[in-house]
Every structure is written in structure tokens, then in C-alpha cells.
Design goal:
Helices cover about 35% and strands about 20% of the residues. With about 280 residues, the chain is an alpha/beta fold. A seven-stranded mixed beta sheet has the order 3-2-1-4-5-7-6, with helices on both faces. α1 packs parallel to α2 (about 60-70) and α1 crosses α7. The structure holds S-adenosylmethionine.
């Protein structure tokens, strides 16, 4: 593993002062149908206590509370801005703590489920994260790790060459920016083995497909245009694409351009969301 950073930040740069709450809100509004489907698949029951570890801006707190109320839903996150955002949307009955999930200020064996989405791949030691979560679970309690693919899957149904080049450019960008190696980018397929390796029982995985065609909901369009086309792809990919491919990509990503991807009849987007579950 090529984790050369010398800072105390997480693998993907998380600290108490880092703030990407806008991106988290966009993602949760975008993927809400599939995230709620994933929560529904857990067959939670009223009265269960649930921890959302790395709760980010807290959208899932209300979705979880709807399943387990009057049971408790607790969120924990290290980032001040994310915690503040989560507190502003959390149901009154939920508690949102600021802290490190690796050393959580919580009672051991007090939860029936630890739900943790897009977090374990941010830790320098994912297995330490699983160990920390399992100590919080009652006997028979479950860990549910969710992971959406960090890198784009399929965007440009009409241009597989550009799609392949963009995928590779994004991988290269992540490798360079965070000094990751190829294995660190295997996120969605790392979580199942992680739970198995931790010795959890009845480990299983299920993948939900986030599939969008045009026309799409405003929440879908906002996420793709702002979080992906503008913030992830625009300037960041410049060094990794030829000038002509970069220009073609910019035209596809520009809502003011005639080639804007989301206005195409054949726009067909696929991204996976994998849930791996194990019991203590
Ligand atoms: C990609 S975000 C996911 C947030 C949320 N679960 C969601 O699905 O929108 C990762 C979150 O994990 C938090 N995080 C990373 N390492 C953490 C740690 N060691 N303890 C607590 N929170 C952590 C970050 O601050 C960030 O809010």
C-alpha cells in the first residue's frame, strides 16, 4: 500500500476541518431511492438502536429513524461542518456526535446495527474501523458497510472510447492526489472480504444499481452537473486527457452547450452501490 502521506488525515484527506458537505448533500439527494432501498433490505424493527458511523451531512439519520423509531439513531462524524449539517436535518430523537469512529465515545454492545456508507474506504486501516464498530454491537448485531463506486462506471452510452479514457483519467487523478495504489480504488469489492476477514458471521453482499436516463429528476441533474461534471471532472482531469478529448468532455459537461450529455435521448448512467453485511 502506497500511503505516503505524513499527515494525520484519513486516506482520502478527512480531518475535523474538512468540509465537503455540499457534495454529500448532492449525493444523498441523488441516491436517496437506492439508499432507502438498501436500508429497507435490512429488515430493521421498531425499537432497534442504530449507529450511523461517519454520518456526514446526516440524511440517512431520518431514513433509519423511520424504520426503528422509537429506537435510538446516533450519528458520529469527525468533521465539524458535516456534524453541523447533520444536526440541522436529524430527527429530534437522534443524537449527532462529533468524534472519531475509531475511538467512539459510546457504550460497548449498545447497538443492533452499525450502518456506515462511503466511510470505510476513507480510513487508513479499514479493518480497525470494522473492529471499532463491532465492539459497539450487541451479540447478533450487524455491521452494514455501504460503498458506491468511487470512480464513474458508465456515463457515455454513445462513446465508449471517451468513457474509458475518462475512467482511466479519474483513476490516475485519485492515485496522484491521494497517493493511492490501484488496490485502494477497488472500494466496492473490498468491503465483502473485509467483513469476512474480520470473522463476522453470515457475511453477504448485495449491489443496488443507481440507474438514470434522461430526462431525470432535478436532484439527479444537480449531482451529475455539479459534483461530477464540474467539481470532479473539469480542471482535475486536464493533465490526463489529450486536448481534443478534454474539449469533447467539456462540451458534454456544459449545460450551455448543444452537446450537453444530459439532454441526449440516449444518456444512460449506471453506478453501483454495494452493501456488505455481517453479524457479530
Ligand atoms: C464520503 S463521506 C460519507 C458520509 C455519509 N456516510 C454519506 O454517505 O453521505 C465520509 C465521512 O466520513 C467521515 N469520517 C472519515 N473518517 C472518520 C473517522 N475516523 N471518524 C469519524 N468520521 C470519519 C468524514 O468526515 C465524512 O463525513
Amino acid at each position: 500500500m502506497a500511503h505516503g502521506s505524513t499527515t494525520a488525515a484519513g486516506l482520502l484527506g478527512d480531518t475535523a476541518t474538512r468540509d465537503y458537505s455540499r457534495k454529500l448533500k448532492l449525493f444523498n439527494a441523488f441516491a436517496e431511492p437506492e439508499l432507502r432501498e438498501a436500508i429497507a433490505s435490512l429488515a430493521l424493527r421498531p425499537g432497534m438502536n442504530v449507529l450511523d458511523a461517519g454520518c456526514g451531512t446526516g440524511e440517512a439519520l431520518g431514513w433509519l429513524a423511520a424504520e426503528v423509531s422509537p429506537g435510538a439513531v446516533v450519528g458520529i462524524d469527525m468533521a465539524t461542518a458535516h456534524v453541523n449539517a447533520a444536526r440541522s436535518v436529524a430527527p429530534q430523537s437522534s443524537l449527532v456526535l462529533q468524534g472519531d469512529l475509531l475511538a467512539p465515545p459510546l457504550e460497548p454492545e449498545s447497538f443492533d446495527l452499525a450502518w456506515s456508507v462511503n466511510v470505510i474506504n476513507h480510513l487508513r486501516s479499514p479493518s480497525a474501523g470494522v473492529d471499532a464498530l463491532r465492539t459497539l454491537l450487541r451479540p447478533g448485531g450487524r455491521i452494514a458497510l455501504g460503498q458506491s463506486s468511487l470512480l464513474p462506471d458508465m456515463y457515455f452510452a454513445w462513446d465508449s472510447r471517451l468513457e474509458r479514457l475518462v475512467n482511466e483519467a479519474v483513476r490516475q487523478y485519485y492515485r496522484d492526489r491521494y497517493r493511492l495504489d490501484e488496490r485502494d480504488l477497488a472500494d466496492v469489492r473490498a468491503i465483502f472480504g473485509l467483513l469476512r476477514k474480520a470473522g463476522l458471521k453470515n457475511v453477504r453482499a448485495r449491489t443496488f444499481m443507481i440507474e438514470r436516463v434522461s430526462p431525470m429528476r432535478p436532484a439527479d441533474e444537480s449531482y451529475l452537473v455539479e459534483a461530477i461534471f464540474r467539481d470532479t471532472w473539469s480542471g482535475r482531469l486536464q493533465p490526463y486527457l489529450s486536448q481534443s478529448d478534454r474539449q469533447a468532455l467539456m462540451r458534454l459537461c456544459d449545460p450551455a452547450h448543444a452537446d450537453f450529455a444530459l439532454r441526449r435521448d440516449d444518456f444512460h448512467f449506471l453506478q453501483t452501490f454495494t452493501l456488505a453485511i455481517g453479524e457479530v
